[in-house]
Amino acid sequence: MNLANKSDAEILAVATPIMNNLMEASTAIDYERHVRDFTDRIKSTLSKERLQSICEQYQSTKGFFTNCEFVAIFRRPDSVVIVWKQWFTNQPGEYVAELVLVQNGDKYQVDHVMVF
Q1: Alpha carbons 65 and 23: distance in angstroms, whole number
Q2: Is the distance from CB of 38 to CB of 47 less than 8 angstroms?
Q3: Cα separation of 57 and 10, whole Å?
Q4: 4 pLDDT band (50/70/90 cuts)?
Q5: Which of 1, 70, 95, 112 has the fewest CB neighbours in a 10 Å radius?
Q6: Mean of the pLDDT values across residues 67-84?
Q7: Got the DSSP string for the chain?
Q8: What's the mean pLDDT when you consider all of the chain?
Q9: Domains defined along the chain, listed by start
């Protein structure tokens, strides 16, 4: 079944563990774990050094990821975009966490991810 035709619950069952891994790997600054579900396209845009720089920067200013709350899923012909509210330990306010998920055969992969 096409990813975009799945229910919100089915999409979240796939996306949530992937996003949790990304958050945990980012906190640990573990490059191999962080990129394990990436498409080749996004993997080619993020070096180990760049991930380390990004993580050190947000951790020094915002702290670490805490709670997140599901907001919405946007369906496209070849992908879905999942959006959560995200909070940090040392920075007040709500942030946006988004993940673009694609299906490559029987694998689900991240083609874009950002917290802003």
Answers
A1: 7
A2: no
A3: 34
A4: confident
A5: 1
A6: 96
A7: --GGGS-HHHHHHHHHHHHHHHHHHHHHT-HHHHTTTB-HHHHTT--HHHHHHHHHHHHHHT--EEEEEEEEEEE-SS-EEEEEEEEESSS-S-EEEEEEEEEETTEEEEEEEEE-
A8: 96
A9: 3-115 (3.10.450.50)
